[in-house]
Specification:
Largest sheet: 2 strands, antiparallel
Oligomer: single chain
Strand order of the largest sheet: 1-2
Radius of gyration: 31 Å
Distance between the termini: 29 Å
Structural class: mainly alpha
């Protein structure tokens, strides 16, 4: 009786909504069919996992829904650089108000100038972030020529400041800072173009040595030892990353050490700095006056610091507290905690830069991203190591933190190039995903056609 009744029972008519969804299906299934191209679907969620049912391929889909919008920018790098810039502005004002008041009768003069340079740097970084970095191949040679002319002009017409001739236009422009960025660009382009010939000395070591020797020599005459060391370091790193022969790299390292020793021995500046560094390395009380005042600032700061703006060492003789010695001000006013945080931020900057280099669309992007990130972080670590007596005094700025227009603008330009490489990497990845998705979709459709679907009685579809 029960079996016969169930067989002869009249089938319940199936109802459909206005968009074609079967009202007899569970609500989750109807909702999935209606939003078949939703963001949840794009993230890879399967129909079976969400609804517990197999989807009917004949169900209509809602057209016109767009893929989620992607920023195509390295957000962690943006956060790191933004934090460095904001913290740098705070420290510049704290370290420079007394110096600015004495020289310019306004406690905010240097701070306002730093904000102006920051805006210029942000504008330049934004432009570089949206210009294909491959265009740098066309401007590399003219940029090198302009840098060479600027370095010669410094020797002929530069103003002497702190026993060195490094700047033009009243100290507003330092070509040695620009030379670091331009040499990275030029070497990246040149090494990428000659990557198949770097094993030959005539195409690898000799031209590279000539390039670094000419620019290093011009900078050495200023003198600016830290810039010379940075340029030689960057040249060696880029040559290694480009796949240079290990024999040539060994010869280059040995030659750099020998030349560096001669420079230090013959240069009064180099020999004086090395002469004050070695005794201080053995006994901190025998270090140079600059390093001893820096130690004093760190001791005053302790673990948590005395508070931003409340430091005293900057007011009692710490040399150039708003530029070369600003890390000592950071140590006094934010303590060990703030100093470690600053080191960690530069560590994150290096991590993101090398990750961008790893994901770069081609070898040129990889060389440029590696060079930019290693340059910025090495400059920072050299500055901080000098302030705690671990390296001879170098006189280089702390990127994004020290006051100074030239260093800040070229540092922001390097960040813009990093963003550009990252953006193009994201675009290439999206193109690959779309191509892969199209192939998968075509295969899914072919598979559906090859399957024989069960037919329903005509009266079961609609009444």
């Amino acid at each position: 009786m029960g079996d016969g009744a169930s067989l002869n029972r009249r089938k319940r008519p199936r109802r459909f909504s206005s968009d074609g969804a079967d009202m007899a299906e569970p609500l989750a299934a109807r909702e999935w069919n209606r939003l078949d191209r939703s963001s949840e679907f794009e993230r890879g969620a399967s129909y079976e996992r969400v609804t517990g049912m197999r989807r009917d391929p004949a169900r209509p889909r809602l057209a016109g829904l767009r893929r989620p919008v992607r920023l195509n920018i390295d957000v962690p790098l943006l956060l790191v650089v933004s934090t460095l810039c904001i913290f740098g502005l705070l420290m510049v004002y704290s370290a420079s108000w007394e110096y600015s008041l004495v020289d310019n009768s306004s406690p905010a003069n240097i701070f306002v100038r730093q904000i102006f340079f920051m805006l210029v740097g942000i504008t330049g970084a934004t432009i570089l972030a949206f210009i294909d970095y491959h265009l740098l191949q066309k401007v590399a040679v003219p940029a090198m020529a302009a840098t060479f002319i600027a370095l010669v002009a410094v020797l002929l017409f530069g103003q002497e400041r702190h026993n060195a001739v490094r700047s033009l236009f009243g100290g507003s422009v330092q070509p040695s800072e620009m030379a670091k960025l331009v040499i990275i660009i030029y070497l990246g382009v040149w090494l990428y173009a000659k990557r198949d010939q770097l094993g030959q000395i005539g195409f690898g070591l000799l031209p590279l040595s000539a390039i670094l020797g000419v620019f290093g020599g011009l900078i050495m005459l200023q003198p600016d030892l830290s810039a010379v060391v940075t340029i030689i370091l960057l040249g060696g790193v880029l040559f290694f990353l480009a796949g240079g022969d290990m024999k040539q790299i060994t010869i280059m390292v040995v030659g750099a050490v020998i030349i560096g020793a001669l420079v230090v021995y013959l240069s009064p500046t180099g020999s004086n700095r090395l002469g004050t560094f070695l005794p201080g390395l053995k006994d901190p009380t025998q270090a140079s006056y600059h390093v001893r005042r820096s130690f004093e600032a760190f001791v005053r700061g302790g673990w948590l610091g005395v508070g931003i703006g409340k430091g005293k060492t900057k007011l009692t003789g710490l040399p150039v507290p708003h530029t070369d010695s600003i890390f000592a001000v950071v140590g006094e006013e934010t303590g060990v905690a703030g100093s470690v945080l600053l080191v960690a931020l530069f560590g994150l900057l290096l991590w993101r830069g090398l990750l961008i280099a790893q994901r770069a669309p081609d070898g040129l992007g990889s060389l440029l991203a590696s060079g930019m990130s290693i340059w910025l972080v090495s400059e920072a670590f050299i500055n901080m190591a000098v302030m705690v007596g671990l390296l001879p005094f170098a006189g280089n700025a702390l990127p994004f933190i020290s006051a100074g227009g030239s260093n800040l603008i070229v540092s922001m330009a390097a960040i813009g190039i990093l963003f550009n490489i990252s953006r193009l990497s994201h675009k290439n990845l999206e193109a690959e995903e779309r191509s892969f998705g199209s192939v998968v979709d075509l295969r899914r459709r072919d598979w559906r056609r090859s399957k024989s679907g069960s037919r329903r009685p005509a009266g079961a579809e609609r009444e």
